[in-house]
Design a protein that fits this description.
The protein is mostly helical and 260 residues long. Helix content is 78%, strand content 0%. Helix 4 packs across helix 7 and helix 5 packs parallel to helix 9. The longest helix is centred in the last third of the chain and has 27 residues. The chain starts with a helix and ends with a helix. The mean pLDDT is 81.
């Protein structure tokens, strides 16, 4: 009974406009994420940081996106490449767990700057969408990639677009790219949320923020899937490159001033 009273008191202490804003952000970010191959978490970083503070943003964003993933997995279940998932997930779980331990000790600015440069470079690597692959990505290559990406995304709160070139070079496009990426992220999300909780990063208030954000993201997934069905592979690839470039430019802009 006391726990329930404390929970109600906590909710009452949170400004309603904070919760409404997080829900709307979740909807908008995941409509864009679904039709452009991911990046919902990365889109959320600036607005969520401004709303609840930069230190709280990564765990809240990862919790919110984790809550949204089962709905997207169900929507795209038959498009998941489980053969790729078995290479990606084990090492990614290790990376997420290690990052949870080091979460408060690392400077994420350098990481975000390097990621931003990589994302912008993809526009030129794919010759502005005119080619569909720049190299052959073996499934075994997702073992080290899973560790690195999960580690970094746990630290900064989102890294979705970085994986897109590797999935594209592994031959995935449109629904199968989104489906496989979502399945991989779901299993890694278990490790991310578990590590945040174990090391005391997620407070009761942040759980509430993450839940509201996640509910908005679920609705965004549904709306986005309806848009995706009407897109061609070429349109999807171009939108993917635009998202990666814009995300990269933002990350460079946000962090270059901090570092220099």
């Amino acid at each position: 009974m006391l726990m329930l009273i404390n929970f109600v008191t906590l909710i009452e202490s949170i400004p309603l406009w904070h919760l409404a804003s997080l829900f709307i952000l979740g909807v908008l970010a995941f409509v864009i994420s679904t039709i452009s191959g991911g990046g919902g978490a990365l889109i959320l970083i600036p607005a969520t940081s401004a709303l609840i503070g930069a230190p709280a943003a990564p765990p809240v964003i990862n919790l919110g996106t984790f809550i949204s993933r089962p709905s997207r997995m169900i929507m795209f279940w038959h498009d998941i490449d489980w053969g790729l998932t078995k290479y990606y997930v084990p090492s990614a779980i290790v990376g997420a767990g290690l990052a949870g331990l080091l979460f408060s000790q690392l400077n994420a600015s350098w990481i975000q700057l390097l990621v931003g440069i990589f994302l912008v470079s993809t526009l030129f690597q794919y010759k502005f969408g005119k080619i569909d692959k720049t190299f052959n990505m073996p499934k075994a290559g997702f073992i080290p990639l899973g560790f690195i990406v999960a580690f970094i995304s746990t630290i900064i709160g989102g890294l979705g677009p970085v994986l897109n070139p590797f999935y594209m070079n592994a031959g995935l496009q449109k629904e199968d790219l989104i489906a496989t990426k979502t399945a991989n992220s779901f299993f890694v999300g278990i490790a991310q949320i578990g590590s945040y909780a174990f090391f005391g990063v997620l407070t009761a208030k942040l759980w509430i923020y993450g839940l509201v954000l996640g509910l908005g993201a679920v609705l965004g997934n549904y709306i986005g899937k309806r848009f995706l069905a009407g897109m061609s592979v070429q349109q999807f690839r171009l939108l993917l490159l635009i998202l990666m470039t814009v995300s990269g430019l933002y990350m460079i802009y946000e962090n270059i001033g901090v570092l220099f």
